[in-house]
Amino acid sequence: MATGLSGALLRWYDAERRELPWRRTTEPYPVLVSETMLQQTTVAVVVPYFERWMTRFPTVESLALSDEETVLAQWQGLGYYRRARSLLACARLVVESGWPLTFAGWLELPGVGKYTAGAVCSICLGERVPAIDGNVERVFARVAADPSSSLKSAATTWARGLVDCNRPGDVNQALMDLGATVCRPKNPDCGACPVSRFCSAFAGGMQNSLPTPKPTKTVVQLTHEYVVPFCKGQVGVRQFGPGEWWAGLYGFPARNGEKQVTDLLTFTHTVTHHKVTASAVLVRTTKMKPHLQWKSTCELERLPMPAPHRKILNSALNAIYESGSNATGTAKVPSSAKK
DNA sequence: AACTCGGGGAT
DNA sequence: ATCCCAGAGTT
Fold first, then answer.
1. pTM
2. Whole-number Å distance, CA A145 to C1' B6?
3. Mean pLDDT across chain A, nearest whole number?
4. pLDDT value at residue A216
């Protein structure tokens, strides 16, 4: 029987926990998929990706037998595409050698760091190891009223004591649920908090000034102009190379002085500390430039593209189908071209 | 320790 | 517009 803070936390968790699709099981495969998707990504965004992924790759064997492009296509739009490659590599290692049975074994898998190893081991194996994410760091900073700018080490020591019980996986997930729904970054709901009586920040009325905010990085402004080449019903794309953003994924080439263009759209997207103002134009050509890969709309659906380029593609397909609507008015925008 | 790597939702 | 999210890997 857990007592004190962890006991109050678990009682709250049993009553208030979020019902999430990956919480229906403690099998390592779905748990690893969810934990990988959740790295630096919000729960609401992950849920539909997780459901689709488990339908497309229901078992670790089915994932291991897939090719990288198919895997990346399932991941497209989630960002941090290294995670998808790591997950594929994990699947192949696991099919070869079996699931790791210890924290140290999990740490050796690609894309599995201390957080993910702790989460999977505690949830699937019942190992008493902490899982320190941004939520847990924030909860710790407030409970301990710790103003430090580097909380990882102290939060780990603190959480090690909390998970030393019969339900380490639930303690870890309870801390994250608490951080996500009650001990929020802004305006924490201390009135609804099950551990407020253990919280030093609450006692001192400092919950809104902890944790200490990190210095903001300066944002670099960039402008990217893209061209969507169109020829005989096919679209020209290129694969991003090593060292480029979105290496290995597909998208559109930079505009290079093309005339006779159709304006498509202008929008901004943010890549870490870069703010890019992107614009794209459509160019209808009569020759398929050989340095590009020419794809039908059907093939484009299955191609892994980062979100901004998928957005450009959809805009281009809309423009093409509008101008190409025939006398019978039967031309339709493919469902994949909807926003 | 500092940096890269995506994208989106909440405020 | 800013913050920050169930972080990991590299330099």
1. 0.94
2. 32
3. 94
4. 87
Give the CA A176 to C1' C7 distance in Å.
14
Give the nucleotide with minimal C1' distance to the Cα of A44.
B9
Q: How confident is the model at residue A333 (pLDDT cuts 50, 70, 90)?
A: very low
Residue length of chain A: 339
Phi, psi of A223 (to 5 degrees): -125, 125
The string of pLDDT tens digits covering residues A278-307 is 999 999 999 999 999 999 999 999 999 999
**Taking a C-beta distance cutoff of 8 angstroms, is the pair A6, A171 a contact?**
yes
Q: Which residue has the tokens 């729960």?
A: A43
CA of A66 to C1' of B9 (A): 31
Active site residue ranges of A: 35
Which bases of strand C have any atom within 7 Å of the beta carbon of a protein residue? 2-9
Calculate the CA dihedral of residues A99, A103, A104, A110 and round it to 10 degrees. Answer: 60
Q: How far is CA A82 from CA A39, A88, A246, A256, in A?
A: 11, 10, 9, 30
